Amino acid sequence: MIRGLSDRAVLNNGVAMPWLGLGVYKTKEGEEVERAVRAALEAGYRSVDTAAMYQNETGVGRAVRESGVPREQVFLTTKVWNNDQGYDSTLKAFEESRRRLGVEYVDLYLIHWPVKGRYKETWRAMEKLYRDGWVRAIGVSNFQIHHLQDLMADAEIRPAVNQVEFHPRLTQKPLLSFCREHEIQLEAWSPLMRGHLFDEPTVRGLAEKYGKTPAQIILRWDLEHQVVTIPKSVHPERIRDNAKVFDFELAPEDVAALDGLNRDQRVGPDPDNFHF
């Protein structure tokens, strides 16, 4: 059982990554993101997920530095954006992200989206960053099975993580199985489906059964599937509440009931049909 914020998933290269972290998508640069990151670190979080596209790396880095938590205890993730994909441009984009964050290294660097014809060259650059010690682990985001197969056909280093949209309306069972088989850690973005599941009768019923909030039920469901999760919030109280998922377990039949809500329904773009 995953029992606390200090518990970590071990990636395929031996690096340990917290099971629960803070996502900062659409969190404004400056005081808003700094307040959210400070609240998370004060609550015991040790993982923060940002991206160049979010335009808040500077605030994330400042909040981490000023938190008093040693840098080596905080797992920092950022991502290369689509316009920067390619070999030389990825190396440049990484250096810009690293400088904005104000860190010597990044814990996890991800390809944000599988841009056709560019992600393999991007991956070559990420392999170099990994070998040169600038990143502790490299991975991808929004990759389907066929993207992973295509990437791994030529890759020298297997992705450590695949961060995808994952929630009870989009359980992605084949992708989850594929990633397990190849020792690629699945990570959930938008795990709460932007709140759309909070009034779902099954979720509300389980919240009453366990004396938890709908959000806590869904986040615990992620953990029962051994999926790393990064719920986003800018409210300190909600950030603290999202971490209260380690003092209970969902019964197998309740996990199955949540699995049964799957509709292959996305709130984000389709990785096979995006234009940005």
From TrEMBL:
Chain positions recorded as substrate binding sites: H112
Give residue ranges for domain NADP-dependent oxidoreductase. Answer: 25-262
Q: What is its EC number?
A: 1.1.1.283
Q: Where is this site: Lowers pKa of active site Tyr?
A: K79
- SUPFAM superfamilies in UniProt: NAD(P)-linked oxidoreductase
What's the superkingdom here?
Bacteria
Principal EC category: oxidoreductase
Task: Supply the InterPro entries for this chain.
Answer: AKR (IPR020471), AKR5G (IPR044500), Aldo/ket_reductase_CS (IPR018170), NAD(P)_OxRdtase_dom_sf (IPR036812), NADP_OxRdtase_dom (IPR023210)
Locate the active site.
Y54
Q: What molecular functions are annotated in GO for this chain?
A: methylglyoxal reductase (NADPH) activity
Has the keyword Signal been applied to this entry?
Answer: no
UniProtKB keywords = NADP, Oxidoreductase
Q: What family is it from?
A: Belongs to the aldo/keto reductase family.
Q: What is this protein called?
A: Promiscuous glyoxal/methylglyoxal reductase
